[in-house]
Design brief:
Blueprint lengths: L1 H11 L1 H13 L8 H14 L2 E6 L3 E7 L7 E7 L26 H17 L7 E7 L8 H7 L11 E11 L3 E3 L2 E4 L3 E8 L3 E2 L9 H17 L8 E9 L6 E2 L2 E10 L2 H21 L3 E7 L5 E3 L1 H15 L4 E3 L9 H5 L4 E9 L20 H18 L1
Parallel strand pairs: 3-4, 3-5, 5-16, 6-15
Antiparallel strand pairs: 1-2, 2-4, 6-16, 7-14, 8-12, 8-13, 9-11, 10-12
Helix pairs in contact: 1-10, 2-4, 3-4, 4-10, 6-7, 8-10
């Protein structure tokens, strides 16, 4: 059976895929600076013997696995290349060698897994008709998102894929399990930057000053009304501020206060309306208290929606491949992913790959300094993605 053949190949390629993952983990690079990573992936593709293009958005690559009748149907698979500005605290042989940079979001897993998928599909290329277009994308962690830039450079053309799969590590699931959610899955994400200017001076003489710290406190509370009194109850919405900078002292009222936050939701009309409301409220409230306000909203990734029919098929195939006990339903998430740009261009399925192993102490969350994976999950990651791709091209 084809399923058994894929499982056999995934097991055979596991050691090589682990070695690739460890190399990538030890040599992480930040968004849009993945130059050595890109060269390494290119060497791997050359060794496999598949055709590929490089230099898309500088560090991106696209590989092509062609079966019989390559033009009959084209589908796409995606992995991301970049790492995060985090100091790794894991004591492992493959610990990051680039101080202050770490694959704490699992992109090393996504890339090595996709290379494993390509090996499997290339071995089985006589078993399917069509082409699998494999995208290695830079800059997922930084606006404007590598996905949006690759789309602008034509990554969804020549040839144009009919659909796309992407996977992402998920510490909440044990290795060997995967999760799916059809329909709306992840939120849009916007960055908020506010500068409040007052008149600084001696803290003991507040009547001579315009206190931007006090104004900021009022503004932070007032802005929450945008969510609590304006958002529809059925539209998930989050407004959070994670950075407040006021460089005064115990006896010094500063001239300026800087706020940084995020706004996330799952409705584009409400998203635009909320932007207007925040800017209007911020400007008017600050001015009413004697200060001035620069309110900037940098529009980020759109919401991510999984095509219902494709995701339902994918879940069924995952059940057939892994067993029903290893396939779970996912909840909505207010986190964001620039795979969303792809999901708004063509039918897409973005699913989760379990990577934890509590018995081994591997259960740290994403974006933490101790994030790690049970490397056995790579076998699931490459095998399942290859299985789903082949089912799409054999349908």
């Amino acid at each position: 059976m084809l399923k058994d053949r894929i499982k056999e190949l995934a097991a055979n390629y596991l050691d090589d895929t682990i070695a690739i993952r460890r190399h990538l983990h030890a040599h992480p690079e930040l968004s849009f600076k993945e130059y050595q990573t890109s060269e390494y992936v290119a060497r791997q593709l050359q060794d496999i013997g598949v055709r590929f293009d490089k230099g898309i958005v500088e560090t991106g690559l696209v590989a092509y696995v062609e079966g019989r009748n390559p033009e009959k149907k084209v589908i796409s698979l995606r992995a991301d290349l970049d790492a995060l500005p985090i100091v790794e605290e894991n004591d492992v042989p493959y610990k990051s060698q680039n101080e202050g940079v770490m694959h704490a979001c699992g992109h090393d897993v996504h890339t090595s897994s996709l290379l494993g998928v390509i090996r499997i599909l290339n071995t089985l290329r006589s078993e399917f008709e069509g082409t699998v277009k494999c995208i290695f994308q830079p800059g997922e962690e930084r606006l404007p998102g590598g996905a949006s830039l690759m789309i602008k450079e034509g990554v969804l053309e020549n040839p144009a894929p009919e659909l796309m799969f992407g996977q992402h590590v998920y510490p909440q699931l044990e290795a060997g399990k995967v999760g799916f959610r059809p329909g709306m899955y992840m939120a849009s994400a916007d960055e908020i930057y506010v500068t409040i200017t007052g008149r600084g001076g001696h803290a003991a003489l507040p009547h001579l000053n315009v206190d931007p710290v006090l104004i900021s406190a009022h503004l932070l509370v007032a802005l929450q009304q945008i969510v609590s009194r304006n958002a529809q109850p059925n539209v998930p919405t989050v407004l959070s501020f994670g950075k407040v900078t006021a460089n005064g002292a115990t006896n010094v009222i500063p001239e300026k206060v800087y706020l940084e936050g995020t706004f996330r939701t799952m409705d584009e009309e409400w998203r635009a309306s909320a932007h207007e409301k925040m800017i209007k409220m911020g400007t008017q409230l600050v001015e009413s208290m004697g200060g001035s306000c620069e309110f900037e909203i940098r529009k980020g990734y759109p919401f991510l929606v999984n095509d219902t029919e494709l995701t339902t098929r994918a879940k069924d195939w995952a059940t057939a491949y892994l067993g029903a006990e290893n396939v779970v339903d996912l909840d909505l998430r207010m986190t964001a992913e620039d795979f969303a740009y792809f999901s708004q261009q063509l039918p897409a399925c973005f699913y989760r790959l379990g990577i934890s192993n509590k018995q081994l102490g591997i259960n740290s969350g994403l974006h933490t300094s101790t994030f790690n994976i049970d490397e056995k999950s790579l076998e699931t990651g490459m095998g399942l993605m290859a299985w789903m791709a082949l089912n799409e091209l054999r349908a």
